[in-house]
Amino acid sequence: MTTVQKIAKYVIIVLKYVSLVFFSFVAVLPIVSVLITAFKTETEYQQTNVMTLPENWLNFSNFIDAFQRANMGRAFINSTIILICTLVASVLIGTQLAYVLNRFKFPGNGLIRSLFLFASLLPGVAMQIPVYEIMYKLHFINFLPGYIIVMCGTDVISIYIYIQFFENIDFSLDESAIMDGASYFRIFYRILLPLLKPAIVTSCILKGVGTYNEYYMASLYLQDKKKLATVATSLYTFVGPLGSKYNLICAGVIISLLPALIVFITCQKQIYSGLTAGAVKG
User: What pTM, to 2 d.p., does this model score?
Assistant: First the structure.
């Protein structure tokens, strides 16, 4: 290796680590600024810059005020109900649909797959006019079960994840179960569904994060912010025409992050195994 090649190698290594440090700093900076702002009083926030440390790190009045004034207790209950119902329905619908598309060859199978792919290319916002019309005609506005039905809509990405996993499961399992007299429902629920655990974990992570953070549809279909607020919409209690209380908003953001952080810490083994298994085919 020549001197020029050695210098080029070290330059590439330096650039790689510098870029890693830079993008890590960019990712962590907003979280640090939110944490600092959450402990500031209203006066401190107005008189200091974003990165100035608060005088009292034991000032939890912002968190108490944000939790009470934004009615976050009710918001957490609503978000939990929506999240559980959505994930259960999404897993049941997605796995069964992927099972039919993968295991049964019938006229129109390829067309259905193509339509799902085409649907994934359409922006969700562009489809909100007909969806809102349907929701209005069915009296699903300001109706929590109606919003849950909308959020349970077929997740195309999850279906393709399930189809990929079904393609890696040998058909001999189905044939052996059929020889033993098992029905298609029994084959699916007793044999194939347990084997889809890594795919289900991956799908639940993607669907769960999107459902928990959903603001646009929650604000559009759950307009009663006192009884039907979610975690995402409750944070906008402190935004108004007379100004925004960013110290309370940041405190609410941290409170909303705590459940996700607890779930990640307690289930990180299953999450990592699901993601890595979902990235490997065969």
Answer: 0.82
